[in-house]
Design a protein that fits this description.
The structure holds 2 protein chains of 2 kinds. By secondary structure, chain A is mainly β. Chain A has one helix at 97-100, and strands at 3-5, 14-17, 20-30, 38-45, 51-57, 61-63, 67-77, 81-85, 92-96, 112-118, 121-126, 130-138, 151-156, 161-165, 173-177, 182-187. Chain A folds into 3 domains: 3-63, Roll (SH3 type barrels); 67-126, OB fold (Dihydrolipoamide Acetyltransferase, E2P); 130-186, OB fold (Dihydrolipoamide Acetyltransferase, E2P). Chain A contains 1 helix and 16 strands. Chain A is elongated. By secondary structure, chain B is α+β, with helices and mostly antiparallel strands. Chain B has a domain at 13-132 and 243-315: BirA Bifunctional Protein, domain 2 (2-Layer Sandwich), CATH 3.30.930.10. Chain B contains 9 helices and 12 strands. Chain B is globular and about 50 Å long. The two termini of chain B are 22 Å apart. Classes of the chains: A mainly beta, B alpha+beta. The interface between A and B is medium-sized, with 25 and 27 residues. Chain B: InterPro entries: Aa-tRNA-synt_II, aa-tRNA-synth_II, aa-tRNA-synth_II/BPL/LPL, EpmA, Lys-tRNA-synth_II_C.
Chain lengths: 189, 316
């Protein structure tokens, strides 16, 4: 793997720090008048998702991380592992529930999601920013109530629960933002 | 901020007008004080030895200057009297909100001034841009005692390392004493300096003297006769009671070159004309270099140099 000097640091660069793959979020050059210059760097540890702040001596180098994002089709969950497939070469990858995390709440079989591979193995799974899913359970709707702004919980076919407006009914398809976990709109079927 | 086409200035024209007003006030001040305005070369055969400064080499010619200091001291040694200039200078690999590889230094030398007299004048010049402001002065040593409960002149390197690990999350374990001091200064102390007034830091450790002479502080500790000015946590100026001893200057250059070799940095040509000028006799003087772009940035309440430079260097 290539090494990167602090001069090449920029947001999105994937590097190894203390044995874990990280992505650089921010990089600021600082110099105390005369003397040694530093780079104050904010990184997200891709294994733990924790954000680190670290100070490097300017000019120091660290190893790049073999981390790539791939669009993959979600196939199925066998009870222990989630299975994904690369659409170009039909190569399959399996990921544990811990790796998939909360993304599992939004994954529908056959849908495309982003799988982050570290040294070729899944490290994290991100659902699409927007998904369209069926409501499998919610209180009956109040006809015509589109103005009061009240909400109620609704459970979706994939397991997520979102707050929806009172007029939305079981069996309807809704569009959700997976980053905020919020209802966006009804989808006309 | 709305995005402009790439060919247009990154600084709004209104900011460039404010910059021109500030420069006009500075020029009027130095003219009224009777200092000679000089214009020394940016391209010279030799350059600074400081391992922490990267000079940009120009094949067949030498180097773009990181500061006009050596050339100005040659003029002082030749009997120019007090001099000033605004010089474009170049430092490799310095990119950031407060760094551009090409920037402007307002640099001046006052014959027979003590550092204290020069600091008073630096405050006067800073106020030309920043308006009426109070002024305080702290010893480097007292700042470390106050913010870190450490004596930077006498404590162990291990204590500095422990403090750095506690406060600054270094991604490295191994560093020399000055690197730990500089890390603590930039990460812990600088953000507190000059919040509401101009703030001078004085009496630096002797190892950070650069081109300043050494003296004893009020407690009898040897310190560098060097000062820095900060405002709103931004370093604005660096000044010295200038070293007059050619032998001492030579040995500092030699130590720099040894350090460059240890760090695997390119060797640079020592400025023999500068050393010969010091040997022939530099008048007793104090000098200072003030970051003009940063001064304008602070005067305008801007957050980055991009807001005050028409065309900051853009890496491609």
């Amino acid at each position: 793997m290539a090494t990167y000097s602090t001069n090449e640091f920029k947001s999105g660069l994937k590097v190894m720090l203390e044995g874990d793959p990280c992505t650089i979020l921010e990089n600021e050059f600082v110099k105390p008048g005369k003397g040694q210059a530093f780079n104050r760097v904010k990184l997200r540890n891709l294994k733990t998702n924790r954000v680190w702040e670290k100070t490097f001596k300017s000019g120091d180098s660290i190893e790049g991380a073999d981390v790539i994002d791939r669009d993959m089709q979600y196939l199925y969950n066998d009870g222990e592992f989630f299975h994904f497939m690369e659409p170009e070469n039909f190569e399959q990858h399996q990921a544990s529930s811990a790796t998939v995390g909360d993304a599992a709440l939004w994954l529908r079989e056959q849908d495309t999601c982003t799988v982050t591979l570290y040294n070729g193995a899944p490290l994290a799974v991100s659902p699409p920013n927007f998904v369209e899913l069926e409501i499998v359970q919610t209180e009956p709707g109040i006809r015509g109530d589109t103005a009061t702004g009240g909400t109620k919980p609704a459970r979706l076919s994939t397991g997520a629960t979102v707050k929806v407006p009172l007029f939305v009914n079981e069996g309807e398809i809704i569009k959700c933002d997976t980053r905020s976990g919020e209802y966006v709109s009804r989808v006309k079927s | 901020m709305p995005t402009r086409p790439a060919w247009q200035a990154s600084a709004p024209l209104a900011n460039l007008r404010r910059r021109a007003e500030i420069v006009a006030r500075i020029r009027a001040y130095f003219t009224a004080q009777g200092l000679l305005e000089v214009d020394t070369p940016q391209l010279c055969p030799a350059t600074v030895t400081d391992p922490q400064l990267e000079s940009l080499a120009v094949a067949g010619y030498g180097y773009l200057q990181t500061s006009p200091e050596y050339a100005m001291k040659r003029l002082l040694a030749a009997g120019s009297g007090s001099i000033w200039q605004i010089a474009h200078v170049f430092r490799g690999n310095e990119f950031g909100r407060r760094h551009n590889p090409e920037f402007s230094l307002l640099e001046w030398y006052r014959v027979a001034f003590t550092p204290e007299e020069l600091m008073a004048e630096v405050a006067t010049v800073a106020r030309l841009a920043l308006g009426e402001l109070g002024c305080v002065s702290h010893r480097y040593r007292d700042l470390f005692r106050q913010h870190l409960a450490l004596d930077p002149l006498t404590c162990s390197s291990a204590a500095l390392r422990a403090a750095a690990r506690a406060h600054a999350d270094p991604a490295f374990d191994d560093a020399d004493r000055d690197t730990w001091l500089e890390l603590l200064m930039s990460a812990v102390i600088e953000p507190h300096l000059g919040r509401d007034e101009l703030c001078f830091v004085v009496d630096y450790p002797p190892s950070q003297a650069a081109l300043a002479r050494l003296r004893s502080d009020a407690d009898g500790q040897p310190v560098a006769a060097r000062f820095e000015l900060y405002f709103r946590g931004v370093e604005l100026a660096n000044g010295y009671h200038e070293l007059l001893d050619g032998g001492e200057q030579r040995s500092r250059f030699a130590a720099d070159l040894r350090r460059r070799n240890e760090l695997g940095l390119p060797a640079v040509a020592i400025d023999e004309d500068f050393l010969a000028a010091i040997d022939s006799g530099l008048p007793d003087c104090s000098g200072v270099a003030l970051g003009l772009d940063r001064l304008v940035m602070l005067a305008l309440g801007a957050e980055s140099l991009q807001e005050v430079l028409p065309f900051p260097f853009a890496r491609r």
